Amino acid sequence: MKEKKGIALIEDDPWLEPYEGEIQDRITRYKRALKEIKEHYGDLLTFATGHKYYGVNFDEDERGWYYREWAPEAYEVYLTGDFNDWDRRSHPLTRNKFGVWQIFLPYDLYQKRFVHKSKIKVQIVGANGTHDRIPAYITRVVQDIETTDFSGQLWFPQKQFEWTDRDFNLRKIKNPIIYEAHVGMAQEKEGVGTYREFADKIVPRIRQMGYNSIQLMAVMEHPYYGSFGYHVSNFFAPSSRFGTPEDLKYLVDRAHKYGLAVIMDVVHSHAVKNLSEGLAEFDGSDHQYFHPGERGNHPGWDSKLFDYGKLEVKRFLLSNLRYWLEEFHFDGFRFDGVTSMLYFDHGLRTFDSYDTYFKGGVDYDAVTYLQLANEVTHRYLKDSITIAEDVSGMPGLSRSIKDGGVGFDYRLAMGIPDFWIKYLKHLKDEEWNIYEMWSTLTNRRYKEKTIAYAESHDQAMVGDKTIAFWLMDKEMYFHMQVDDANPVIDRGIAIHKLLRMFTFALGGEGYLNFMGNEFGHPEWIDFPREGNGWSYQYARRQWSLVDNPRLKYQYLGAFDEAMMRVVRRTRLLASEAATQLNMDDHNKVVIFERNNMIFVFNFSVSNSVFDYKFKSFGPGTFEIVLNSDDIRFGGHGRVDDTLEYHTNEEGQLSIYTPSRSVLVFKKKEVEE
Fold first, then answer.
1. Looking at residue 75, what DSSP letter applies?
2. Angstrom distance (rounded) from CA 672 to CA 534
């Protein structure tokens, strides 16, 4: 008799056994949702084609445009725009029993009026009065420069975009090394960058630096630029402030030409409150797309919260994912605000026991939605990449659904950057605890892949400081010339390299960096606002700093490129976790092996040790493949990289380890 298999998530972690009922319920709810979708639509991927039914779509058989909108509690709905001189009553929609409104515009009658680039809105009469709204599924939204009013825009380009990325192979990107970027602030000019500028100027840089993936922020339309793209109003519209939809396609196509995956930062955790631009009170009620009452408001983000239990809400969001994959060839998603989605209190608790993940307070509708979202993404694009921004450590988040998980490929190691900031902010260098550092960087759930990072955009936002600025502060403005010796800058450059390499080598199966941080960009991000005179001074990236051979930023940039080459060439991130070889608290030395390489970190302020002996993972001859103390990286050149190191009879290596440095040794292949 065949033994019944249990839930893999629990088999891998017996501490989860008391929560078998909750984990089984997670699987059952998912299957129940699939069954409901199948009963109504036949297939999950078919269900995720709402954008081909709702909004404006041309019907080839009937030769005309259908406009449809789900607005179950609306009293009256009218289509208006340039095509009817903004007459709010001439084009009423009719309602069916499911709360779907529609109107048909025959091509013969409207071909000269309902045209490319013309503007439209929908007027909805409901319990909250009469309002002009932007269609929920609209694919382009533009803002009037003079009135600042947003409108939907018909987008019927005569010439379809010609993709040239058929040779791009996403399967090659087994372990994403991600360059997180914001298109608008990616240029050096004091203004808003464009999709095409990013494609032509920044994509080649990213490739040259050695990254294999780009993560794009702020793609979905948002009315306030300073929200960083996290207060989304129009989920199917790429932000027009950066260019046209074709310009965004050009960016993705060009990235694929360089062998780079493009991951979209997708915001399904909440939506902007604005009535004029967004979905709030769309049909006149407060509970169409969102939860009613206070449950529908996020207390910390001043935004609206989706009701993931509703079938049409799931259809809207799942269709949104398919749309970005299908129409713009994105390679996956980084899901923002997953912690907020998972818990009724939005994660505002201490996660100190498994009870906090399972015993009350979990929004299981959100869990089911995230499972469906991962399934849609991976079914549509087999090798797609999904990443969860979750600080709670929810068990199974990046395990398969059949294993009892939620289905993400990776989770973000959000505790790592917080840990580094805590050390830089509160401890002297001499007080750093190498055992705590090791534990923090290696403490992650078994079989759940992680994207490690030392800092992302969060650490660069206004009100905080980047690692570089924590280390060097105002000295960066006065002492970054190569011929200007300064102890603050010297320390800062050395530790900046150490923290990045320590994070890269220990933190997970993927890595992320926010643009500019790789060379220690000196300024925080502050978007144009009234408080700074609507200036773009701090909403840009100064590439001239790293390009200038007279400045020390080049050292940090060069080390980043060298670090990327070593990691990619050795496929370090795909290897097994690191094994400790030596922990020396007196000298602040941490030595470990990963993928037949030895990493020697010396965090000491002053202890540079000659003839430092430690037990190797095996006999052989070793050579240095990365040395942070190299003068090319702003170091002091205290180590000769050409030397070879041989294990002695006791299996030990003897090396010189300079203070505030990392040396990476690789075992030499034995020649036949």
1. S
2. 67
Closest by CA position to 43, among listed 376, 299, 412, 381: 376
Tokens of 517: 């941080």
* Contact indicator for 368, 33 with CB cutoff of 8 Å: yes
pLDDT at residue 222 tops 70: yes
Return the residue matching tokens 């999950």. 44
* Residue 150 DSSP SS3: strand
What is the C-alpha separation between 250 and 43, in angstroms, rounded?
Answer: 32
Question: Are residues 260 and 203 in contact, defined by beta-carbon separation less than 8 angstroms?
Answer: yes
State whether residue 131 is helix, strand or coil.
strand
Rounded to an integer, what distance in angstroms lies between the CA atom of residue 493 and that of residue 286?
Answer: 52
* Helical H segments across 42-177, by residue range: 44-47, 107-110
Query: Which residues make Cβ contacts (< 8 Å) with residue 377, sequence separation at least 6?
Result: 321, 325, 332, 333, 384, 386
Q: Which two tokens stand for residue 53?
A: 């039914």
User: How is residue 391 written in tokens?
Assistant: 């600080």
Cβ(257)–Cβ(168) below 8 Å: yes
Question: By the 8 A CB rule, do 71 and 78 touch?
Answer: no
Contacts of 626 (CB under 8 A, 6+ apart): 501, 562, 563, 566, 662, 663, 664
CA–CA separation, 358 and 420 (whole Å): 30
d(CA 625, CA 663): 8
Take residue 294 and report the two structure tokens written for it.
């206070």
Tell me which residues are annotated as active site: 336, 389
pLDDT digits (tens, 9 = 90+) for 109-134: 999 999 999 999 999 999 999 999 99
Residue 1 CA: distances (Å) to CA of 4, 352, 436: 9, 41, 48
| Surface-to-core class of residue 99, CB atoms within 10 Å of its CB (0-12 exposed, 13-18 middle, 19+ buried) | middle
Closest-CA residue to 604 (of 584, 589, 626): 589
Residues 354 and 16: beta-carbon distance below 8 Å = yes
Which residue blocks in 222-268 are alpha helix, DSSP H?
A: 245-257
Sheet holding 100-106, edge to edge: 55-59, 64-70, 100-106, 94-95
Nearest to 521 by CA among 467, 564, 562: 467
Q: How far apart are CA 185 and CA 242, in angstroms?
A: 10
CB 183 within 8 A of CB 218: yes
The type of residue at 607 is N
Contact (CB, 8 A) for 355 and 18: no
SS3 content of the chain, % helix, strand, coil (to 5): 35, 25, 45
Amino acid identity at 191 = G
pLDDT digits (tens, 9 = 90+) for 581-608: 999 999 999 999 999 999 999 999 999 9
- Other beta carbons less than 10 A from residue 537's beta carbon: 11
Amino acid residing at 121: K
- pTM, 2 dp: 0.96
The stretch 447-463 carries a mean pLDDT of: 88
Strand partners, 4: none
Give the integer Cα–Cα distance in Å for 382 and 46: 16
Q: How does strand 213-217 pair with strand 141-143?
A: unpaired
Q: How far is residue 93 from each of residues 53, 124, 283, measured CA to CA in Å?
A: 15, 10, 13
229: left (phi over 0), alpha (psi -120 to 50) or beta: left
* Residue 2 confidence class, pLDDT cut points 50, 70, 90: very low
The token duo for 250 is 């050009």
pLDDT band at residue 672, thresholds of 50, 70 and 90? very low
> What's the start-to-end Cα distance of the chain, in Å?
52
